[in-house]
Amino acid sequence: MTTTRFAPSPTGYIHVGNLRTALFNHLIARKAGGDFILRIDDTDPERSKEAYVEAIQQDMTWLGLSWDRVERQSLRLDRYSAAADQLRAMGRFYECFETPTELDLKRKKQLNMGKPPVYDRAALALTEAEKEQLRAERGQGHWRFKLDLERIEWTDGILGEMSIDAASVSDPVLIRGDGQVLYTLASVVDDIEMGVTDVVRGSDHVTNTATQIQMITALGGTLPAFAHHSLLTGPQGEALSKRLGTLALRDLRQQGVEPAALLSQMARLGSSDPIELRDDLTTIAEGFNLTHFGSAPTKFDVDDLFPLTGRHLQTLEHSALADEIAALGVPADLSQQFWAVTRENITTRHDLAAWWRLFSQGADPVIEAEDSEFVAQAMTLLPMGPLDGESWGTWTAAVKAATGRKGRGLFMPLRKALTGQQHGPDMSAVLPLLQVIKARG
Ligand code: GLU
User: Does domain 3-72+184-233 have CATH number 3.40.50.620?
Assistant: First the structure.
């Protein structure tokens, strides 16, 4: 059975970059009728926060990215020490005592000599007595996995044939001196024990994958299929990392971006398939194909989400917004009409409030000097009694007859006087909604 996971560290809010990973894994599981696990990578007790765990779940729920179960690494520490013991017994795990400063010096020396900055395995030469002494001086050491120095190969679902020389990679540290289990060990143990069949993540994990393949094999696990999607950049190709803080899913939500817009964009951006608005995850999943994605960095422009959002909103029936419209104070008998008039004139749901303000309180009229007499005269001709879909036509016909104005010179000053805007919905639909006019004597 297909099993995928989305494995955020709860050290911040999830952003558009994380969403790509979450969505791809979700779609793969759903398309295959498999399981999608939300795995909270919280082995770092200092940086992990419960508030972020909740926020991640809220953000995913908002998008409809349902999961089949939640796993927490902080509850599985015994599993990680069991795996560490197994690796130790195999002679694939060794204790090191270098300080960060010493490691940094080693790296600098290697780089100066034009060599790759790979850990030199000096700790492998330590005798038991030397280790005892180092422990006494420096405390417990940190533990590294001993890579087999051979080429590590896999067929990547996006990048194709991959081959990494293990000799060009440092033996990964799996447990810190203070006992904290690091991501690589926890992730490998989880992927094996949770039966993860497909791992899709950002291309910043390619080197991790090489080491994880050796670890999974050493621990007797079955290798999942790996795929690494490109990283997002800004519209100019600039790194997004600094801006990701402002591209948190909750910020986009607050700006009025609709889930359908975000999901439609993210499920296709960076692939050879066009971005088309799809209104739900099922239809998004139908056209989704991981092999259509390319390895080049993917340009992301947050502004593209707004036209998609507007187009999605236009497709919604009144019932989908009835509560929201009522909450704005729109009387029930005007609600349908209000939606019919505004649906094609909003970019996000937030714009509804501005339209209702305009209809209920009137706009700041925009009246050009040369139109002021004309507008004043027109106002005296507004038909009395309740206004309906015919009223605009009746009124403008009367104004035309009285003033001799026609076309744009007739309609535009009236639109601007009543709505404060040059563009907007059909005035014959707007007029009956204008509460100020309705309330006049
Ligand atoms: N917690 C890791 C991250 O957020 C998970 C990476 C993975 O999918 O293995 O980068």
Answer: yes
